Amino acid sequence: MKRFAFFVVAAIVSLVALSIPATGHADAAPAPYVTEMPSGYRDWQWVSSAHEAGNLNSLGSVLGNEIAIKAYREGKWPFPDGAIIVALHYKNVPSDENNKVFGQAQSFVPGAPTNIQFMVKDSVKYAATGGWGFGHFQDGKPANADFMKPCFPCHQKAKVTDLVFTRYAP
Amino acid sequence: MKRFAFFVVAAIVSLVALSIPATGHADAAPAPYVTEMPSGYRDWQWVSSAHEAGNLNSLGSVLGNEIAIKAYREGKWPFPDGAIIVALHYKNVPSDENNKVFGQAQSFVPGAPTNIQFMVKDSVKYAATGGWGFGHFQDGKPANADFMKPCFPCHQKAKVTDLVFTRYAP
């Protein structure tokens, strides 16, 4: 009887241990993020562009799908579910052609594409990351879960604008 | 008879003088250009963006209507009639918000709008300026004819790409 009781207790302990959520552990299940590029993004309307100097040396442009653009133009946060914002990034390079015309070195244009990033609003699926699914793609391939970890904490600094840094250019 | 002959000759000379086209004169009729902003331009698709340093200190974005975008994507010049390209220009300003997040001054975004420029392809109407009608608007108002004079000669330096400097960003 004692051996049997032991096995029963062991089984119960194992079941309990397996059912404890793994949050906080180093091998905790990562928050869901965007692993497939939404289709048609290159056709979306223009939100704004930016030049990042420093280490990035990047020229970027942000486009938004219909839902995102509508929300931007209404000036209302949070963005509704279904809104998708894409940031197309390129190396910031001088344009020799343009500089010849201007007569001095002053013109910088998009060079080689570097990465494409997405923010997809789904307040249920991406509840763990403020309602936004973050995505990062290089040569069409998604980044891994470790790479995606810093996205949400950094974007939380833009809490006032629903985690979105980019403003709409009129 | 001599006096009569004189008057006839004088009349003929006057008629000939009046019929000579006034090209080359300081008061020659200016080439037609775009004086009304095409509607719906802010909804057009994104072509590319650029940062102009130097005196301009400008961040600009180029959008194209359906005909222009199609031509760009096919990579064929010249652009067909009906193509319209718009360049939205803004002051290039640092973003304090973004710089706080990045931890250093590196982020430049569109500030106040400066001007909106158009190129409208109509090889008949704008034959005098390479088939393109040029437009320049500030606060919604078109520039005058004198201001528009340098557009065409400068754009002729981009003859290889049908007078269009901006390349399509993939």
How would you portray this structure in words?
The structure is a homodimer of 170-residue chains. Chain A is of the alpha+beta class. Helices cover 25% and strands 29% of the residues of chain A. The first copy, chain A, has five helices and six strands; from the N terminus they run H-E-E-H-E-H-E-E-E-H-H. Chain A has a six-stranded antiparallel beta sheet. In chain A, a hairpin with a 5-residue loop joins strand 1 and strand 2 (58-64). The longest helix of chain A has 18 residues, at 2-19. The radius of gyration of chain A is 23 Å and the shape is elongated. Strand 4 (107-121) of chain A pairs antiparallel with strand 1 (45-52) of chain B, so a sheet runs across the interface.
Provide tags for this entry.
170 residues, 6-stranded antiparallel sheet, elongated, 29% strand, alpha+beta, homodimer, 25% helix
Write the layout of secondary structure elements.
2 copies of one chain form a homodimer.
Chain A: H1 2-19, E1 45-52, E2 58-64, H2 66-74, E3 84-94, H3 96-102, E4 107-121, E5 132-138, E6 141-142, H4 145-148, H5 151-155
Antiparallel strand pairs in A: 1-2, 2-3, 3-4, 4-5, 5-6
